[in-house]
Design brief:
Layout (H helix, E strand, L loop, with lengths): L2 H14 L6 E6 L36 H4 L7 E4 L22 E4 L13 E9 L5 E11 L2 E5 L1 E4 L2 E4 L2 H5 L2 E6 L5 E2 L3 E2 L6 E5 L7 E9 L4 E3 L4 E2 L2 E3 L5 E4 L18 E7 L9 E4 L22 E6 L7 E10 L5 E11 L1 H4 L7 E4 L21 E6 L7 E10 L5 E11 L1 H4 L7 E4 L21 E6 L7 E10 L5 E11 L1 H4 L7 E4 L21 E6 L7 E10 L5 E11 L1 H4 L7 E4 L21 E6 L7 E10 L5 E11 L22 H4 L11 H30 L1
Parallel strand pairs: 2-5, 7-18, 16-18, 19-22, 23-26, 27-30, 31-34, 35-38
Antiparallel strand pairs: 1-6, 1-18, 3-4, 4-5, 6-12, 7-8, 9-10, 9-13, 11-12, 13-17, 14-18, 15-16, 20-21, 21-22, 24-25, 25-26, 28-29, 29-30, 32-33, 33-34, 36-37, 37-38
Pfam families: Rib
Keywords: Membrane, Signal, Transmembrane, Transmembrane helix
InterPro entries: Rib, Rib_alpha_Esp_rpt
Length: about 725
């Protein structure tokens, strides 16, 4: 069988081949039968008349499946005596048929694979699950017995079978051991190329041959001792038995699948080294992968290592070696050119002219223009110092030493200047009060940029005796003794024209003249010693708004006036007492102050008294009017609610007012006694009254004792 098996094999090859290595399965076939291969390459069960197709996708519903599906005949050939060939093999697109489809030979055209004809014209009946069927004419070409080579690639995920492209590149032959006769070479068959065959006719007895593989595709190697399924891998030149009768059968046939052996190919990768791997002295040895130019094109799982690592302590060219181990087991090595250089050879310090004051040796680092581009830790020092004892150009030699210990020298031009020639003081106008000579340093705008120790003093003092602009000359003397002069403009002002006091409104109690400084918003901005006084006092004798005039006199004697708005208020207009309800016993007038909730917030000395007393003679709510009088004499009234509560009962003894003994005097009303009528105070009458009074007191005491007892009971 040719194309049907090819299609099945190609499907598996396509599914498994993802890169890696290729196996050569060796299958032998002679007249009388040949092993048939299922889609996965294993031997199929012989003699199957009909095969169920499972796993195919179902098409949309149709009236008859035979009208919907179109099985096509395969362009077939097979070996004489092939008993494994089934009707399903004869349908090229059997995999596209629905699940459950069966295949059978047309009873009128059952093929005879034993010959004698080499061309079999037959037909396959394809039956669908809905009962419909169709008959497909099939033409089968019978071939002579031959040696078949199957190509397999060893890959890290397993074997990739029947690789057509690789099979085309394999050159092999069979050498009979008995006489050394060579048969071949084998050539690809007329199917898509996953097999190649070599026919040897007339072999009637088992004969030993040596399989000789003359060439394999570029980029591959033979892998000994590999195994794939039922194919045991062998080395080249492996000896096999070819042909001979099958046990218990009197006909020639192929060697059973379980005895078939083959060769395995594995992809070989080539390493391409970088043209040159530059390294610096004392550098750490880089990863070996960095030396491989084509690492990105190789499997990512590859592992790289130095076989011979670079010696970064030795400057010069070296030849090192990298090994790569790939996941399919192949190994590749390549030489890598390495150049180790020191930092003095790699870097180039650029000289930079230096300006320096006369007598000052500049830092050698200042003479290297690109020092920041050199390696961290690079040092620069004078190997030959420049002459800085006089102004002019001098030359010094800077030695640059790198972290790796290498060094080089650079000539640097040094311009020696006196400081007066180097610096340029900028004049700055000065404001100064009349009569005050300012500091000459204040007339130099960039004094902080001049060398430490630079002095500035008046060579010609400005006239500060009158208001206006004056000119002075400042002499700037540098630490090296050189000097220059600068004309400075001095603006002489009186303080009244310089400062601007701003008025702000004042509130003041009636009768109180406020502090004039309170009418100046920005007293902190005027100079110390400035005075403020009322030039025109505001009228604070009555509430309302008024205006006063404050005179501001500066330390230099100049002055100016500011009009200040003043708001005069009495305290009654400023404060607002809040009423607070008072609880008081019947008959007790509470303190009026208790009716003012915020009395503590009012000015010290504020008084509160009843202007209208509340009626506390009976229980209930009453209203009183409290007059609040402030220290300034102003006042206002507040209505206060007074809650009059029932007068509390007496203590434990139930008596009324307390006497000297602490006991309350009995109430005559409560004791049931009536007040005696008034009587003239004469002699007898007085005695009678006294007796009556004594009798009443005794009765009251007795009543009190009885009441106390009742209360206690």
């Amino acid at each position: 069988m040719k194309k049907e098996r090819t299609l099945c094999s190609q499907a598996i090859s396509s599914a498994l081949t993802k890169g890696g290595a290729v196996s050569l399965g060796l299958a032998l076939a002679v007249t009388g039968g040949a092993p048939a291969f299922a889609a996965d390459g294993d031997a199929a069960a012989p003699g199957a008349a009909a095969t169920a197709n499972s796993g195919a996708a179902q098409p949309p519903a149709a009236s008859k499946m035979a009208d919907t599906y179109h099985p096509a005949a395969a362009d077939l050939d097979t070996m004489f005596g092939d008993t494994t060939f089934t009707p399903r093999h004869a349908i090229a697109n059997a995999d596209e048929m629905p699940a459950g489809t069966t295949y059978a030979w047309d009873p009128q055209k059952v093929p005879n694979f034993m010959g004698p004809s080499s061309v079999l014209n037959t037909a396959v009946v394809v039956s669908f699950t809905d009962g419909s069927s169709c008959t497909v004419p099939v033409r089968i070409q019978l071939q002579r017995s031959m040696f078949t080579l199957y190509v397999r690639e060893y890959h890290y995920q397993g074997m990739v079978r029947n690789n057509a492209k690789l099979a085309e590149g394999v050159k092999y032959r069979l050498v009979r051991l008995s006489d050394g006769e060579s048969f071949g070479p084998g050539a690809p068959r007329n199917n898509p190329g996953h097999e190649s065959a070599l026919a040897i006719d007339g072999v009637t007895q088992p004969t030993k041959y040596k399989v000789v593989v003359d060439s394999i595709p570029d980029g591959y190697e033979v892998v000994p001792a590999a195994k794939s399924g039922s194919f045991d891998a062998i080395d080249p030149n492996h000896v096999i038995d070819y042909g001979g009768p099958r046990p218990n059968e009197g006909k020639l046939t192929s060697i059973p699948m379980a005895q078939t052996q083959g060769l395995v190919l594995r992809r070989v990768y080539q390493l391409e080294a970088v043209d040159n791997l530059p390294l610096m002295k004392k550098d750490a040895v880089p990863a070996a992968k960095t030396a491989i130019k084509n690492a990105a094109d190789l499997p990512q799982e590859a592992k790289y290592e130095w076989v011979k690592a670079p010696d970064t302590n030795t400057v010069g060219a070296q030849v090192c070696r990298v090994r790569a181990t790939f996941i399919n087991g192949s190994v590749a090595e390549v030489d890598v050119p390495v150049t180790v250089t020191d930092q003095a050879s790699k870097f180039e310090p650029r000289p930079k002219p230096i300006d320096t004051p006369m007598g000052t040796l500049p830092d050698a680092k200042g003479g290297i223009d690109n020092l920041t581009e050199l390696p961290d830790g690079t040092k620069a020092e004078w190997e030959k110092q420049p002459d800085v004892s006089k102004p002019g150009d001098a030359t010094g030699t800077v030695k640059v030493t790198y972290p790796d210990g290498s060094s080089e020298t650079v000539d640097v031009t040094v311009k020696v200047i006196d400081q007066a020639g180097k610096y340029e003081p900028r004049p700055k106008p000065i404001d100064t009060p009349m009569g005050t000579l300012p500091d000459a340093k204040d007339g130099i705008d960039n004094l902080a940029e001049l060398p430490d120790g630079t002095e500035a003093e008046w060579e010609k003092k400005p006239d500060v005796s009158k208001v206006g602009d004056a000119t002075g000359t400042v002499k700037v003397t540098y630490p090296d003794g050189s000097s220059e002069t600068v004309d400075v403009t001095v603006k002489v002002t009186d303080q009244a024209s310089k400062y601007d006091p701003r008025p702000q409104p004042i509130e003041t109690p009636m009768g109180t003249l406020p502090n004039p400084w309170n009418g100046i918003e920005n007293p902190h901005e005027v100079p110390l010693g400035t005075k403020a006084e009322w030039e025109k006092q505001p009228d604070v004798t009555k509430p309302g708004n008024t205006v006063g005039t404050v005179k501001v006199t500066y330390p230099d004697g100049s002055s100016e006036t500011v009009d200040v708005p003043v708001t005069v208020f009495d305290q009654a207009g400023k404060y607002e007492p809040r009423p607070k309800p008072i609880d008081t016993p019947e008959g007790t007038l509470p303190d009026a102050k208790d009716g003012i909730d915020n009395l503590a917030e009012l000015p010290d000395g504020t008084e509160a008294e009843w202007e209208k007393q509340p009626d506390v003679s009976k229980v209930g709510d009453a209203t009183g009017t409290v007059k609040v009088t402030y220290p300034d004499g102003s006042s206002e009234t507040v209505d206060v609610t007074v809650k009059v509560t029932e007068k509390p009962q007496s203590g434990d003894d139930g008596m009324g007012d307390e006497g000297d003994s602490g006991m309350k005097k009995p109430s005559m009303k409560k004791a049931g006694m009536k007040k005696a009528a008034a009587m003239p105070t004469t002699g007898d009458a007085a005695g009678a009254a006294a007796a009556a009074g004594a009798s009443g007191l005794v009765a009251a005491l007795l009543a009190a004792v009885g009441l106390r007892r009742r209360n206690h009971s």
